[in-house]
Description:
This protein is an alpha+beta fold. Helix 11 packs antiparallel against helix 12. The chain is globular. Keywords: GTP-binding, Hydrolase, Membrane, Mitochondrion, Nucleotide-binding, Protein biosynthesis, Transmembrane, Transmembrane helix.
Amino acid sequence: MLTSLRIFAVNRQKMSSLYINGKFCIFNSYILTLFPLGLIGNDIKSLHSIINPPIAKIRNIGIMAHIDAGKTTTTERILYYSGYTRSLGDVDDGDTVTDFMAQERERGITIQSAAVTFDWKGYRVNLIDTPGHVDFTLEVERCLRVLDGAVAVLDASAGVEAQTLTVWRQADKHKIPRICFLNKMDKTGASFKYAVESIREKLKAKPLLLQLPIGEAKTFKGVIDIVNKEKLLWNSNSDDGKDFERKPLLEKSDPELLKETVEARIALIEQVADLDDEFADLVLGKFSENFDLLPAEKLQTAIHRVTLALTAVPVLCGSALKNKAIQPLLDAITMYLPSPEERNYDFLQWYNGDLCALAFKVLHDKQRGPLVFTRIYSGTLKPQSAIHNINGNCTEKISRLLLPFADQHIEIPSLTAGNIALTVGLKQTATGDTLVSSKSSALAAAQRAKRREEKQQRQSCEVERLLLAGVEIPEPVFFCTIEPSSWAKQPDLDHALKCLQREDPSLKVKLDPDSGQTVLCGMGELHLEIIHDRIKREYGLETYLGPLQVAYRETIMSSARATDTLDRTLGDKQHFVSVELEARPGETPSVTPVIEYAKSVSRDLLKDSQEAVENGVHNACLQGPLLGSPIQDVTITLHSLVIHPGTSATMISACVSRCVQKVLKKADKQILEPLMHLEVTVPRDFLSPVLADLAQRRGNVQEIQTRQYNRVVIGFVPLAEIMGYSTVLRTITSGSATFVLELSTYRAMNPQDQNTLLSQKSGTM
């Protein structure tokens, strides 16, 4: 694809052509494309191939890593070298393309994933820059769901870090082929050997070394291409890193480098041969006498197969900040990561080439309304066409179709399978919704799936999962109240929160039944802080946040039994319900109550009342008797149910709910607190004060690892004890330490801590 190509949206006009400022311009109803005059002729591709390149030439990839590993800087360099930006963006200067939110530019971190479409050497690349902060893990999850490949960026001085492990596990879950890029090779303490070893030990992956660094830290000046036995050197006088030399390694000029490269290439060939039978047959057949004669193309093809099979991970290195070795990374993305047609998606067989797309992200634009990022798996998406949302069971109309370029978008007439599109006009669609061409298409797909299910004797729930593949949304661990500056602004706040919830499914909003206040539930302090800031900036609302509180849960430690009767006459109608039920500790962990029915309960009676009974149980378990926190790990057994004819479902639910609350109060109760997995990276001189501080916070240190010149403290600490930890850690380590938190589990509080917490909540302390 021509790197100089630019596409701009224009108003509908008749087809015409003319010269403007020495450039040849072609107009059509959607697009104005500008080509330099020197490129007119055989180099010009058709408009269709520009918008919809062959599926084999498409790469849908994500950039993922631990916070501060250099994801956004790497993305900026990729955009610059591909010709889609004219200057190098910098995170510290706040002028990056993908970090376009004000909050991202102020903090120098990625909060929302941003999608960018660009071309590189004839390939269409849809790239997504994802957050590294643990509070925004869901952003990574929902983007990985629609990617075909990923680039894991590692800090060469730190190797694999806490959030690297998290995103790697997410990529494993979705079976995504990966490339590792060891960034910051110019940084003091950078170690190629250490970083590679950390991939092997911590990620349990097999690294395929495709490059070796020429120098490390301050002496880093280029890389060796092991596959082609070449050295790539960057001009130190070049400001932007575009100028670099690619030279073959020769015995005369580089004897040591050549020897090291030949040894590394032989090791690479042997490693790939162990993992790929086809390549092993080739090597042992034609090239068993001399591996040097093996063509680079054969080795590259085998590496591509091994990467797709997830049996090994290609490893490259460079320095995004110093503009070194990004171009070879782009080549590796197109060479080793898969095209959409090379990924196997089981659910596509039900659609027979008809439209099947997944909405994986929603943004709200002030002018255009909701913008929905959509991955097209099969069929074609066109503007002014109706689509059916299977999850929402509704039909909507797409008014416009756009190619995403961070916060700038290019209007297009259609988009085919394998691409990522941005749709305008979908008012009901939310994250994780499956979109098809019509309701009849969805029914036909369901019928095909059912027939296959009957043949293979599959469970129906598995078929449903294939048709409606979505995103797992984690439970929030922090909550706080939010109030507008005046009651007149409450409807505006409700609208803002509704929009933000649709964008961010990990944000939960609920109404406190006692105080009537609106409660925000989020993944961490930073998450809620960002939401508060966005409400002010994007919706112009002044709001006040209450103190941050921990999302405790409750359970029971013993069995209890209770009965309840509701007898009420409303108008001329009598409502009568009598319930007897038992609550006992659950045998397996479960966030929602497990509901069982005794044999004595009439099955005919349950046919009409089961939904009302279960609604009553679930509503009662939303608020426990101790703190009003949700109840988990509990089994409710219904022993007796008497209902008079004509009794409403609402009355049944109310009686069951009251009975559940009664039985929970009878049982021995226990508060569960969120336990966080903590990883603190600290210079060895400050290790003692960090350990002493963790001991005061009820922390449990599991191990202390050595990482170059630092120590990594790994352990568990209750969430309630870690509030404001960043400020304390900064103070006791003179700003030299960093930490990462992640929810591990909920554990029972000891009696002393539980009594202290209850006293604080009741105001007796």
